[in-house]
Amino acid sequence: MTTTVHAFGAREAGAPFEPVTVERRDVGPHDVKLDIEFCGICHSDIHFADGDFGPLPISPLVPGHEIVGVVTEVGDAVRKHRVGDRVGIGCMVNSCRECENCLQGEEQYCLKGHTLVFGNIDRDRSVTQGGYSEMIVANEDFVVRVPDVLDPASAAPLLCAGITVYAPLKRWGAGPGKRVAVVGLGGLGHMGVKMAKAMGADVTVLSRSESKRQDALDLGADAYYASGDTATFQTLANTFDIVLNTVSAPIDINAHLGLLRLRGTLANVGVSTEPMPLNAFALMNNERTIAGSQFAGIRETQEMLDFCAEHDVTAQVEVVAGDQINDAVARVLSSDVRYRFVIDASTLAESTPAH
């Protein structure tokens, strides 16, 4: 038996999102069912739906991996969550649980491949569907607790944007006495500013033009420079301990490496599908490191949510209804968002599913 729920999905790569229905499995012994309240719209959702990461694995494809909702049913063996809890689901809903990385709590790097919350083949051979929908069922081990003090709409983007910047900032030592440059002030970038400031670092924002200067300062940045001005890279040479690149397009890697002081790290979390040439000397000078980071494991995701509750860190969001999703996507692509669109899942049933 399955449950049919309203959703919004793409029927083919590059097609607009439209009302659809998807089937959700019955609740198994270790499963949690939640009614979705809010789901963020991430740039990666758009990449998947546009076919940038390959052909659609199923039609329709329902994206969404920044999910907050309320538990409505739990399996007999569930011990981590109860009916009525507010919880979240992020980028993945399964992993092998047995490999070296999984056993260290780094399920995002599962050596056998983690299962994304949408567009992946799960271990039971079913295709996963994401959070642009009314309800979802997932294994309890991949469901996290959302602290009550966090606004649910503003907390939804923490499940991807928040953890994506928290993990590398923590890994490379953001904190008091450290200088962090955040490249790009979008969905990821604005969370990078908030997280780094909450960790106690000095934060500079690098964005293409002067247009977001006041926004950056309002978010807590200590300084702002326009990366479109070549003088910026001379002024800030050998300055930062961490340069956090959040841009989902190619950047001049060598110029940004030049911003790092001795043994600094350029951490890439923005997803670009185009290559970025690297000059080995830019890396070797100052013994710099270039690194990449995905989101994080479940343990660290819960840690991040608790950190955000303690430090009052949430996303800046604009809540949209189901019939506004395509407009929101267009605005994301034109960088016209301050700073994350979040879908109100209660509006999804108002549209008649297309057949």
Topology:
Blueprint: E1 2-9, E2 18-25, E3 31-40, H1 43-50, E4 67-74, E5 86-89, E6 92-94, H2 100-103, E7 115-116, E8 135-139, E9 144-145, H3 152-155, H4 161-171, E10 179-183, H5 187-199, E11 202-207, H6 213-219, E12 223-226, H7 231-235, E13 240-245, H8 253-257, E14 260-268, H9 280-284, E15 289-292, H10 298-311, E16 317-320, H11 325-333, E17 340-344
Parallel strand pairs: 10-11, 10-13, 11-12, 13-14, 14-15, 16-17
Antiparallel strand pairs: 1-2, 3-4, 3-8, 3-17, 4-5, 5-9, 6-7
Structural class: alpha/beta
Unreliable stretches covering 5 or more consecutive residues: none
Radius of gyration: 20 Å
**Overall strand count:** 17
Coarse shape: globular
Main sheet, how many strands, which sense, barrel?
Answer: 7 strands, mixed
Number of domains: 2
Number of helices: 11
Helical coverage, percent range? 10-25%
Name of the CATH architecture of the largest domain: Alpha-Beta Complex
* Average pLDDT for all residues: 94
CATH class of the largest domain: Alpha Beta
Indicate the proportion of strand residues: 25-35%
How far is the first residue's CA from the last residue's CA? 21 Å
CATH topology of the largest domain: Quinone Oxidoreductase, Chain A, domain 1
Give the SSE string: EEEHEEEHEEEHHEHEHEHEHEHEHEHE
CATH superfamily of the largest domain: Medium-chain alcohol dehydrogenases, catalytic domain
Task: Write up this protein.
It is a single chain. The chain has 355 residues and is an alpha/beta fold. It has two domains: 2-160 and 315-350, Alpha-Beta Complex (Quinone Oxidoreductase, Chain A, domain 1); 161-292, Rossmann fold (3-Layer(aba) Sandwich). Helix content is 24%, strand content 26%. It contains eleven helices and 17 strands. The protein has helices at residues 43-50, 100-103, 152-155, 161-171, 187-199, 213-219, 231-235, 253-257, 280-284, 298-311, 325-333; strands at residues 2-9, 18-25, 31-40, 67-74, 86-89, 92-94, 115-116, 135-139, 144-145, 179-183, 202-207, 223-226, 240-245, 260-268, 289-292, 317-320, 340-344. The strands form four sheets. Strands 3, 4, 5, 8, 9, 16 and 17 form a seven-stranded mixed beta sheet that branches. Helix 4 crosses helix 5 and helix 4 packs across helix 10. The two termini are 21 Å apart. The mean pLDDT is 94.
